[in-house]
């Protein structure tokens, strides 16, 4: 299918796509705030400038758009048919930069959580955010306990719960 916009219109349209305050990011922030989690946004001093930084949990959360970050196996990620070489190179650079940022954060003792745009649909938001909450709890427990925290499922509940080394 050919593009229905002129190159100037397409350029104007694409140049207005922001990197902060996107709908997926706002959904994550709203859920975290509503559940009592406090955070900072786009902290420059943290490598990779994560979307959400939770210092007490030593966790950086990246909310990635499936198209812009090349989410493999996702319906939202499809290489455009026009100017394909440019888009493939751009998405490859984004993926490389993401991996480098995650590695730097890990080496500096940070935990990295990546939430993909496709995981934040109305049907999947709660399940995704419960997983993020589990990771945050495990991160907090691992900072203050000698044993690694282990997840276990509570009967009748679909969300796993973090507990210290099997002590109930």
Question: Mind sketching the topology for me?
Answer:
Elements: H1 7-15, H2 23-34, E1 40-41, E2 52-54, E3 59-64, H3 84-107, E4 111-116, H4 125-144, E5 150-153, E6 160-163
Parallel strand pairs: 3-4
Antiparallel strand pairs: 1-2, 2-3, 5-6
Describe the structure.
- There is one protein chain.
- The protein has 4 helices and 6 strands.
- The chain starts with 6 loop residues before the first helix and ends in a 5-residue tail after the last strand.
- It has helices at residues 7-15, 23-34, 84-107, 125-144, and strands at residues 40-41, 52-54, 59-64, 111-116, 150-153, 160-163.
- The model is unreliable at 159-168 (pLDDT under 50).
- The chain has a single domain (7-163), classed as Endonuclease, Chain A (3-Layer(aba) Sandwich), CATH 3.40.960.
- By secondary structure, it is of the alpha+beta class.
Query: Overall pLDDT, averaged?
Result: 82
Number of beta strands: 6
Under CATH at level 1, the class stands as: Alpha Beta
Spatial ordering of strands, largest sheet: 1-2-3-4
Q: Any idea what the radius of gyration is? A: 19 Å
Order of helices and strands: HHEEEHEHEE
| CATH superfamily label | VSR Endonuclease
Derived from helix and strand composition plus strand pairing, the structural class reads alpha+beta
| CATH structural fold name | Endonuclease, Chain A
Low-confidence parts, pLDDT < 50 over ≥5 residues? 159-168
Number of helices: 4
């Amino acid at each position: 299918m050919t593009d229905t916009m002129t190159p100037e219109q397409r350029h104007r349209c694409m140049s207005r796509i922001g990197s902060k305050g996107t709908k997926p990011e706002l959904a994550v922030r709203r859920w975290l705030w509503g559940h009592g989690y406090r955070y900072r946004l786009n902290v420059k001093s943290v490598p990779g400038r994560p979307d959400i930084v939770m210092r007490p949990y030593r966790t950086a959360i990246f909310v990635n758009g499936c198209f812009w970050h090349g989410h493999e196996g996702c319906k939202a990620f499809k290489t455009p048919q026009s100017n394909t070489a440019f888009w493939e190179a751009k998405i490859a650079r984004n993926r490389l930069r993401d991996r480098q940022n995650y590695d730097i954060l890990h080496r500096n003792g940070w935990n990295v959580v990546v939430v993909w745009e496709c995981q934040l649909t109305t049907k999947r938001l709660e399940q995704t955010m419960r997983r993020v909450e589990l990771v945050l709890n495990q991160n907090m427990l691992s900072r203050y306990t000698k044993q690694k925290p282990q997840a276990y499922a509570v009967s009748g509940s679909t969300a796993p719960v973090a507990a210290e080394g099997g002590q109930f």
